[in-house]
Amino acid sequence: MPTTSIRAQHSPITKTFLTEQFKLFKRFDDIWNDKFLDAMFISYDGPATAFLDEEAEEWIQTLGLRVLYISSAIKMPEVKTLRILEIDSGPPAGPYFTKAAVPENPNEKQSTIEIFDVYRLEKDPYEAFVFGALPLADGGWRTTNITLGKDSVQYIPIPSRMAILTKGLPLSGTRFALKDIFDAEGLPTAAGSTAYGKIVPTPRKTAESVEKLLALGATLVGKTRTSQFAHGAQPWEYRDIPYSWNPRADGYLTASASSSGSACAIAGYDWLDFAVGSDTRGSVRKPAALVGAYGMRPTHGSMDLSGVVPLSEEMDTAGFFARDPRLFSEIGTRWFAESPVRIKRTTIRFPRKLIYPTDHFPVRHPDAQKIYDSFVSSLEKHLKMTKVPMDFTEALRPYLPNGNFTEFQLYSNTLAEYRSWHSVGKPLVEKYRRLFNKAPKFDPKTRQMFKRARNLTESEFDEAVALRRQFKEDVAKELIKADTKSCSESVFIYDAGTGGHPSYRGKKYNQLPGATQFLLSSIEVDAKPSQFFTYVGSMAGLPEITVPIGQVAYFSEVSKQWEMLPVTAQLAAHPGCDDMLMEMVQKLAEAGVIIPAKAGRETF
Asked: Amidase domain: which residues (predicted)?
């Protein structure tokens, strides 16, 4: 029976209170509606006992209820036209389904009522999810793989916001998706590999990073797709688990790196509030830039990453995506509140310097550059920042191995390849051979990385670790320095996207007029270091955010119509200054400089 539960804290319980509760349900919950009024619970959580006033009693009779459940803390109303049953207490506020054995005697106290949580099934047309997740009564979750009829598209069950909103926690009422490299009790972790999923036991413990979100009141609804072991692969290199679909524009654009499943989910579904990813060398920042979402890579070392499939402990971070800047700021502040590397002193102003890389700007599309110019002007106006033009590649050169950015990237590769092979690949291959008498199948990118990793020595890995730690120290001391008043002396701005041009999931589409191939590294192509500034944040351990700031039009040779492409800005700061970046987002949102992104074809 569709049922609504209401909880009151004050007596008398009035018609005004009850109608306001319904308005609250309609405003905050995308599941509750008037059809959940076959039955109703009214419970009282205040002192002593409560009663319904006369106007409330009369109004309740107009709802068409089949049965009204009243908690024992409320005086039984004198309503003869309605079956009223006394219960000890009802469930949290929100919609439910109930099944009850209604007693013959109307004065008899209800003996048993079965109460079921309500879930709405939402399509996953962008194939962002591996599976949905339903919570178990004794903790943990179970997977769902729901399809309806001849429709092969998976459906994700989502809970009512009201039932979880009443927890009264900072993130109560929010739903999130989890990249499939994070452990969650009862949900398999495959890390984009069917072979890995076969041999790794289903986790019996939830990753500490995920537990923090649950403790803040957020609700997990499922796991999202990832490239194998979070390796930075191109869409056409996904073989084992298919690549997700970017909802933006013509529907064939790339979403870049390993957290693309989470990025596509947040860009595609308005029923999802945020999505967890990981960022080692850009796997939150690049997808966020390409789908037009807010994204965060925190200062390296901000979060305990036990229960997360590692890529490089020297660069790995837990990150996330969101569409709403205020929620983004709230999550970024609270999730990392206990960070051991967070600078805790109060910021009394924002950084005065905005490092503007002249070797990077202007971007390729003139309309996109106009958006950057406007955003920089807004930073100067609202945050009192001063634009400081700088050839950032040249500024970096003294701190690069032999002054060479390509060598710098190769050291980064060593950090990722060595650790991924020894922590994940090698144990997997050995166990798989023992169990199945054959080698596991890997995607092309994984095969390449593991092949190179087999030839790396421990001393080469140690050399890469030493270089990264020295680079981190140099950048913090010489380029993006600390400041006692603003935490970070400067903020570094750049574009982690495509400069306003479309880049496609299919390799051949990138040869279309106006298109460009989104590059993951400059090692095998003729590219400039200024196209790969995501490596700086990774190797220097900087906190960095992606902020959607506009969109530009392009004519799609795929859809044969004009489409809108998101434009985003990266903002990086001194290590530990994550809170300052979150305050910056909050300030810009209050000023109307940045606004919530939409789900679907267009960002705004």
From this structure: 167-581
